[in-house]
Amino acid sequence: MSPTLSHLDELEAEAIQILRETAASFERPVLMYSIGKDSTVLLHLALKAFWPGKPPFPLLHIDTTWKFREMIAFRDETARRLGLDLRVHTNQEGLAQGVNPFASGSKVHTDVMKTQALRQALDMWKFDAAIGGARRDEEKSRAKERVFSFRDRHHRWDPKNQRPELWNLFNTRINQGESIRVFPMSNWTELDVWLYIWKHGLPVVPLYLAKPRPVVERGGTLIMVDDHRMPLEPGEKPRMVSVRFRTLGCYPLSGAVESEADTLDKVIEEMLRAKTSERQGRLIDHDQSGSMEEKKREGYF
Amino acid sequence: MSFAELKEGERLREYLERYERTELLRFLTCGSVDDGKSTLIGRLLHDTGRIYEDHLAALERDSKVHGTTGGGLDLALATDGLKAEREQGITIDVAWRYFATNTRSFIIADCPGHEQYTRNMATGASHCQLAISLIDARKGVTTQTRRHAFIASLLGIRHVVAAVNKMDLVGWSEDRFREIEREFFLYCQRLGISEPAAVPISALQGDNVVRRGTNSPWYAGPPVLELLESVPVDRPSPDAPFRMPVQCVIRPDLDFRGFAGQIAGGSVKPGDRVRVLPSGRESRVVRIARAQEDGGDLPYAAAPQSVVLTLADEVDCSRGDVICCVGDDPAVTLGIECDVVWMQEQPLVPGQRYLLRTGTKTTPCTVRRVRWLLDVDTLETSPAESLRMNEIGRVQLECEERVVVDGYRDCHATGALVLVDRLTNATSGAGMVRLPTEIGARRAHWETQAAETLERADAKPSLVTAEERERRWRHAPRTVLIYGPPKSGKTRAALELERQLFDAGAAVVVLDGQALRRGVSKDLGFSDEDRSENLRRAAEIAKLLNDQGFTVILAMVAPDPAARARARALIGEGRWEERGMGVASSPEH
Ligand SMILES: Nc1nc2c(ncn2[C@@H]2O[C@H](COP(=O)(O)OP(=O)(O)OP(=O)(O)O)[C@@H](O)[C@H]2O)c(=O)[nH]1
Ligand SMILES: [Mg+2]
């Protein structure tokens, strides 16, 4: 009997190997849980990798306080249902200074509430390996990154000087204060993620499915009015439009897609016909050309 | 978009089934700097419609700023994603791209051509099954082309496609193409790459990349994409000996103790007897454990699956150990001989200590000796004291703890190693284990028994006796081996001897080692073991010819005295004669 592994099975096997290497090689690993579809798959893989035990690391969510409310509800429900150790960190200084996506702009908001917050959390809990669900097919600088990606004491990435990474013999050696970002799903595509969710029937945040939601238009992008903090123009009234999201982040920075796809099957079918990339609706990626590389160098995930 | 389209009226389930059945091929682009590797990948994605509209718009904008094509679409920018790369117009590190057609899924590693970044190319190649070697039609095959092809073959890549690029700049000259093709194929042959392909292309204009071009009516072969869709994909064989390096022990409670790992070779099922190495304890597989909601325990698993095994006995087994089948054991050893690609500024020198990582085991090791350095142009070896950055050579290591390894050719996952600098933690070198058993058992067949049925068929005596033949040819047949390093004048000496014997009336033939490699031995490379096997085949042919009354002159490198002694034994002492030709450049002999 020699059934050849399917493409998805092979990706799963590779990711599980990486997760186990991480657990075995680091003292204080952590899984970055950002609630979206990639995190959903990542968490499932982690549960599978250590079954019948539990993943030997906590989950970390960097809460900017601007996530969709449905995301937070989904996060807490997931941690409760699975009995996992969930740590949540918010940059309190940033909060006190009133940094937010509207007044401060997406660039400052992302830097203070996401990048700096992440660095604070990693330092505070002394995590030496942070596992993330990023994929190489998402963005052109991510396409260049190693599976075990070295970060110096200041959490910086040096893309011109990455460690060679041959076979699955990962170099996990670091000195005090340095750390590694681990990307078990490096070789997955957006399609692989959705098909995996579909095949295994994994629950996802309902925001991925189309439903009439209150939106306003900003610079050609549909933004959902998730709470009262969204400043409206005088006389502006949110419209109810059937929309869904291709990626999830801070609601003021996540562009919605007009769609009637209210089931997972329809969402995947739409994605298969899409002519634009999943990141197109992400406002933070468009601040400047090469902005993802800049942010990653600073310690962004 | 980067995937195969959903067909009209196709259900998602059907699509998934189709997608899961499509074969995955991992390939890289390699070759000299600026030969057009990144442009080719960009072209491949562009012409198959695999670039999203927003990405294409960004690409058009970027081409105006950073492009090397005078404002036109610079497709290299589709993969050159780092700021420094776009500014300099070169590739520094591997870019990974993903796309699928209706027949195959592809993972592409677009590798840098610059010699300084050879280690990044090796990183890409270690994950691939096929290499596209780009060659600038104006420059032809360069040292860097050879270096990359060599590294690819060293890492076990068996399929190579030469994309002779920038044909638009040489007026689509067929002569030029054929010349490059010939030179490259010759080199591939020497590497033991059996069926290389060559395609004349213009990555810039798109000819023969996805679609056939109109500029090369003389080229009858397929475009690059068609080759990629049809080359057979090498898969790990489930019949190989079972190996699983243990990553960690899963022990949630007192009732469960499972050994977690990714299967490196072969397959396993409950009930199989296994051995835990290096300790050597034996046990039996009880379960391949899996959660009920994922379908429950597995009846069978094979490489490269990640699994959890439980064993029947309370054996001592932990991270770094390897669970293996009983019989067909890997080597358990302190000393390792391996081919090393050196990847850091500070050279590898004897006496130096590194951390060695193989399987899931990490142990300190000391470099004992550099046996030789390999010249990628001539494929000749020369004695060396050290290996500098980007050099490749044969190295002996001494580990502080016993390690469990296979020959790289037998099992990549347990035959590969990396060396890590103990101070800087840099990944300093990549190694491929070479084992004496691998040489004996797999490559050279000196020891192998002939199939029984063949021997019986062979036994019918000829109606012509040896004496009759001797009388006819007026001499007793012999085999003369003329050996020595490349360019030492073997062939010349052989041809002169042939003339002499022929004039004296003898029935005589010359077998040249190089000529054998074109046919009989086209699967062989230039390692010691492959040279030894080439000599064995030559000797077998010589023996058959001797039996028919012919005298045979062998012109071969044959550096290994032990192999020569075996050839002598095969032919028979009385019929054998050997002459060495200036044994200078070979380090060992
Ligand atoms: N005329 C012509 N120019 C080409 C062709 N293919 C590539 N080029 C040009 O050659 C230059 C180098 O192309 P790249 O694709 O960046 O080369 P590369 O091999 O990826 O280079 P490195 O990765 O830095 O080693 C660019 O200016 C391309 O536009 C071709 O078929 N014809
Ligand atoms: Mg390039």
Cofactors and ligands present? guanosine-5'-triphosphate, magnesium ion
- Average of the residue pLDDT scores of chain A: 92
Give the count of helical stretches of chain A. 8
Q: Largest interface, and how many residues on either side?
A: A-B, 67 and 83 residues
What would the principal axes of the Cα set say about the shape of chain B? globular
How would you classify the helix and strand content of chain B by structural class?
alpha+beta
The largest pleated sheet of chain A is described as: 6 strands, mixed
What is the overall silhouette of chain A?
A: globular
Question: Spans of chain B of 5+ residues with little confidence (pLDDT < 50)?
Answer: 439-443, 449-457, 583-589
What is the number of strand segments of chain B?
Answer: 26
Topology of this protein?
The complex is a heterodimer of chains A (301) and B (589).
Chain A lengths: L6 H19 L3 E4 L4 H14 L8 E4 L6 H14 L3 E4 L2 H5 L8 H20 L4 E3 L16 E4 L27 E4 L7 H11 L10 E8 L2 E4 L14 E6 L10 E4 L5 H10 L17 H8 L3
Parallel strand pairs in A: 1-2, 1-4, 2-3, 4-6
Antiparallel strand pairs in A: 5-6, 7-8, 7-9, 8-10, 9-10
Chain B lengths: L11 H10 L1 E9 L5 H11 L5 H14 L16 H6 L6 E6 L3 E7 L7 H8 L4 E7 L6 H12 L4 E7 L8 H18 L5 E4 L23 H7 L12 E3 L2 E3 L7 E5 L4 E2 L4 E5 L3 E8 L12 E2 L3 E6 L10 E4 L5 E12 L10 E6 L2 E14 L6 E2 L9 E14 L6 H4 E5 L6 E7 L2 H8 L8 H7 L7 H8 L5 E5 L6 H14 L4 E5 H6 L9 H20 L3 E6 L4 H11 L4 E5 L9
Parallel strand pairs in B: 1-3, 1-4, 4-5, 5-6, 23-25, 23-26, 24-25
Antiparallel strand pairs in B: 2-3, 7-15, 8-9, 9-14, 10-13, 11-12, 11-15, 12-14, 16-20, 16-22, 17-18, 17-21, 18-19, 18-20, 21-22
The complex binds guanosine-5'-triphosphate (GTP) and magnesium ion.
The site of magnesium ion (MG) has 5 residues of chain B, from α2.
